[in-house]
Amino acid sequence: MNNNDMILANKKSERLYNDINYDNKKCLSKEIAKFVDVMINNFSDKDLTNLYNNINSLDIIIDGGYENHQNSYDPVNNIIYLEKDNAKSAVYHELFHLSSSCYKDDTVFCGFAQWNDDLIIGIGLTEGYTQLLRERYFGDDDLKHAYSAEVNYAYLTELIVGKDKMSCLYLNANLKELTNELCQYNSVEDVINFINAIDYINAYKFKVSDSNKKEIFQNIIDSHRIARKFLLSTYTKKFAEGIKIKALENDQDAITQMTISFYDFVGEIIDNNAAVNMETNEEIIILSTDVLNEIVSSAFGSPDMIFFK
Ligand SMILES: [Zn+2]
Q1: Backbone angles phi, psi at 139, to 5 degrees
Q2: Ligand 1: distance of its center to the CA of 126 in Å?
Q3: Which pLDDT does position 84 carry in this prediction?
């Protein structure tokens, strides 16, 4: 069994909107009502099944005193844990987790993450996209800086997949289909390595101590290299293929629009192309000019192409 076989398909259950009962969550009923309102106005009903399934039986525990439960969502028991001090702001991020989670066959499906006894995958991309949606629909919050790398990777992935499809796959907790989507331009292994790289960054960025600093920093840089290389290569292949089709159709407007979007994407890759070495405070370039040229020229299938100078 390879890794892709381990990623399970999340079969949708049919349940649509009924009256939402806010009684058991009085302390945050205003925020929850606002959240539901924004979701109904921005997403189609077929993508809100998990929200409708979970919202009425949700429990909210504030200052529960469990160290590992500070501002988190437990999809197995459908509980949101919040710290009292920032509960009103933190609840939105957790409500996105609630809206994209279900638990069946001993497996948690949560956005682009899945976990059970044999596998845990996709936490980093899920946290990034959760925070991206939180900021898009409810503004910034304290997590803005904590998840900035994951948000950036989720955003770049969304530029490849498309906004509507990406939010649909997230809300339906469909990692399998996201993987299939990215496999159009990559091997399964490449896709799994990309998802794992963001998982590593997410898991280890705050776990650096003096004794492991060097090793973790090197692994984090390598993870950034894998993720950025994957994203640039995937977008470029998709662009090269799209341009060919539009050229055959002689659709100049589409070619112009796609070219502008391609340059925007490349700009995003260049903008965040450095990390600071925790030991020396030196800036490290994640992808060198040579590597950037290698990625783009091989995606275009023209080995001598110089795109970056
Ligand atoms: Zn989260």
Answers
A1: 85, 175
A2: 8
A3: 85
Residue 28 CB neighbours (<10 A) = 20
CA distances from 230 to 197, 216, 224, 272 (A): 10, 21, 10, 15
User: H or E stretch including 189?
Assistant: helix 188-204
Ligand 1 midpoint to CA 72 (Å): 6
Q: How far is the CA of 260 from the centre of ligand 1 (A)?
A: 33
Domain spans in the chain, listed from the N-terminal domain onward? 3-171, 207-300
Total length of the chain? 309
Distance 203 CA to ligand 1 centre (A): 12
d(CA 216, CA 211): 10
Report residues of the chain scoring pLDDT below 70.
Answer: 1-5, 11-26, 64-69
Q: In angstroms, what is the span from residue 109 Cα to ligand 1's centroid?
A: 14
pTM over 0.90: yes
pLDDT of residue 240: 95
Neighbours of 263 (CB within 10 A): 10
Phi, psi (deg, nearest 5) at residue 110: -140, 100
pLDDT value of position 15:
53
pLDDT, tens digit (0-9, with 9 covering 90-100), for 156-208:
999 999 999 999 999 999 999 999 999 999 999 999 999 999 999 999 887 77
Q: What spacing in Å lies between the alpha carbon of 169 and ligand 1's midpoint?
A: 17
What is d(CA 159, CA 141) in angstroms, rounded to the nearest whole number?
23
